[in-house]
Amino acid sequence: QVQLVESGGGSVQAGDSLRVSCTASGGTFSTYAMGWFRAVSGEEREFVASISRSGNTVYYSDSVKGRFTISRDNAKNTVYLQMNSLKPKDTAAYFCATGCSDSALYWGRGTQVNVSS
Predict the structure, then answer these.
(1) Helix (H/G/I), strand (E/B), else coil: 100
(2) Within 13 Å and on the Cβ side, how many CA atoms surround 81?
(3) pLDDT tens figures, 56-75
(4) What does the buried/exposed string (b/e) look like for 23-44 if buried means 16 or more CB atoms within 10 Å of the residue's CB?
(5) Are strands 3-7 and 18-25 parallel, antiparallel or unpaired?
(6) How far is CA 34 from CA 2, 74, 85, 107, in A?
(7) Signed CA dihedral, 84, 90, 95, 101: sign only
């Protein structure tokens, strides 16, 4: 059983930057590709970014490409999402998961990011 805990969310203004983190415990972190997803209340969860087990391969949704950067530190069992040039439409709860799709086995509880104009 893997536990994922997100942190680093908050309220910022448009154009600001924020980094959210996800720390894993209870499993071998380096054996999982990791993903970040986001959801607005009442809407479906949206893929944001993913990173391979080694960190060498990353993918981004078109909506965040060029603004967000996913990275990981396997020694710290942590995956990060650096978010720059934030926009109000980035407002959502951000979740990490042990995978790159909705079928990921383990999910965190999320951290809220609010971007005001």
Answers:
(1) coil
(2) 35
(3) 999 999 999 999 999 999 99
(4) bbeebebeebbbbbbbeeeeee
(5) antiparallel
(6) 12, 11, 23, 10
(7) negative
CA distance 74 to 79: 8
32 near 23, Cβ under 8 Å? no
Residue 41 backbone dihedrals phi, psi, to 5 degrees: -50, 125
Q: What are phi and psi of 94, to 5 degrees?
A: -105, 130
Report pLDDT digits (tens) over 30-55.
Answer: 999 999 999 998 888 999 999 999 99
| Alpha carbon separation from 3 to 39, 51, 79, 88, 105 (Å, rounded) | 20, 18, 13, 30, 11
Q: What letter represents residue 49's amino acid?
A: A
| CB-based contact 49:62 (threshold 8 Å) | no
